[in-house]
Automatic annotation (TrEMBL):
Keyword Signal: yes
Protein name listed in UniProt: Sel1 repeat family protein
Annotated signal sequence range: 1-22
Keywords assigned by UniProt, alphabetized: Signal
Length: 175
């Protein structure tokens, strides 16, 4: 599903600059873009709140037992897997918001139009979760491959979990 939505997003982003419409069509596009954007924003917010809602499980105390990980490696693993699970949870609505934001930009909606947002910061903000995950992933890849392979096989890390409480549970010292 994610591959199809990514292809759709790429297609929409590639075709959007080609849209040059006469005034009545332009008006209809703005109305359509505003509705899409409003719906996408509302759905993304609801999904995000669901994905960060309290009640995520705490990792078992023995999650990293027999892996011989340093505290830094445990920390990197927790940060990466938590960001990955959060992004996976919001990916579909984030993609819809990205497409709607780009459509709003091309339709010239206030705050999204090229004149109001020349560097597409509104569109880029939608990608914040992906940036975060990629940053953690780059750091996580410093963990030796045999350890990463074992970490990838831990089911509890493949799900949403409470980051702070899990860090406490596995014995990480926190500030």
């Amino acid at each position: 599903m994610a591959v199809a939505s990514n292809r759709l997003a790429a297609l929409c982003l590639a075709l959007a600059p080609c849209l040059t419409l006469a005034p009545p069509e332009s008006e209809r596009l703005q109305i359509f873009a505003a509705e899409r954007l409003s719906n996408a924003q509302a759905e993304a917010e609801v999904r995000y709140l669901h994905c960060i809602a309290p009640g995520a499980p705490v990792l078992p105390v023995d999650t990293f037992k027999r892996l011989e990980l340093s505290d830094e490696e445990k920390k990197l693993a927790l940060l990466y897997f938590n960001a990955r699970a959060r992004r996976a949870c919001t990916e579909q609505t984030d993609t819809a918001l990205l497409v709607a934001s780009q459509l709003a930009r091309e339709a010239g909606l206030p705050e999204y139009a090229r004149a109001d947002d020349p560097h597409a910061e509104r569109v880029a903000a939608t990608l914040a979760e992906l940036y975060s995950e990629q940053e953690y992933k780059a750091r996580y890849w410093a963990v030796p491959e045999p350890k990463r392979e074992k970490l990838e096989r831990i089911d509890a890390l493949q799900q949403r979990f409470d980051l702070i409480e899990s860090a406490h549970a596995v014995g990480l010292p926190l500030p």
